[in-house]
Amino acid sequence: xxxLAAMSGGVDSAVAxxxxxxxGHDVVGVHMALSRNRDQFRTGSRGCCxxxxxxxxxxxxDVLGIPYYVWDLSERFxxxxxxxxxxxxxxxxxxxxxxxxxxxxxxxxxxxxATALGFDAVATGHYAQIVTxxxxxxDGGPRTVRExxxxxxxxxxxxxxxxxxxxxxxxxxxFPLGGFASKDEVRAEAARRGLSVSAKPDSYDICFVADGDTxxxxxxxxxxxxGEVVDVDGAVVGEHDGAYAFTVGQRKGLGLGRPAADGKAxxxxxxxxxxxxxxxxxxxxxxxxxxxxxxxxxxxxxxEHEPDGWFDAEVQVRxxxxxxxxxxxxxxxxxxxxxxxxxxxxxxxPALEVELTGTPLRGVAAGQSIVVYRGTRxxxxxxxxxxxxxxxxx
Length: 394
What we know:
Helix content is 23%, strand content 29%. By secondary structure, the protein is of the alpha/beta class. The strands form four sheets. The protein has a six-stranded antiparallel beta barrel. Strands 3-2-1-4-7 form a five-stranded parallel β-sheet, with helices on both faces. Helix 1 (11-22) runs parallel beside helix 2, helix 1 packs across helix 7 and helix 3 (74-90) packs antiparallel against helix 4 (97-116).
């Protein structure tokens, strides 16, 4: 196969490209230039996609003996991932830019361009597995489906942020690191192959906020918007420079003028962009036992084999959060924007509803991704549109 290897400049993508070459594929390496600032440099292990990273990717490609190119996707990145990040925070929601990057850049812009150039697949250094198996089709005959599964490396599993790829794009994706149980194994592979990135630190934080100051980045783009921090009874307990800089579940950086009457910690329980108000309250108000998601996406064969209505699964609302048991059902958004059954969908199409059957989740915010699992298999994904407080906290 002709395979385009997405090379970020890190050890994971370098080894993924090496394994694709070793498997006998015709491989071409591509580094995606995502920053508009051509002088951007990585600071320690913060950020990625810098000039430094592009150089590391080129050296890895040279070692592997494969062609190497840099594709400038910075305008697309700014117009989709960064724009979504800003608009979601401005709307009082909590976005996940890594999910949006996979959706709009790696498995849309990059994959579509690769397909147009005649490549059969895109290989990335993500930690996840693709499992191919035969299932019974709607007509009773066998058909092949590709399933997305968790990586055996629990600490690095990225199935959560990959769920947005969906079945059509998963069909043209390769994750050569899917079978690795630890990062040490990947680094050992890199060292054995003479790749200089074998000891390179992992990147973390948001790639376009390389200094880690998310609030500062938001303020630089959205400006200062002073407002009030109030408690659940409406009493003013502090001030802020912009409600957009707060997220449900946040405890630190609230700048409260006085402690709660009971002396307990207070958390952000609501962000109200219309009035530029941040609402704080006790921890028990963060627990939810029902969640609605919009823009739902299901993997191939999932709903065919579930009865109409509810089915048992597990759900996860953070990249490295613990999955919790739940009942899930697919619904359609209603014309009134609240879901045909009060699900909280924006009314634009496929949605899902979740009822937790075990311990309530804490600090679920609109804008987060909710991924549905059964064991290691990803069943579907949606964006949280609403969450209801657990009965015990009402």
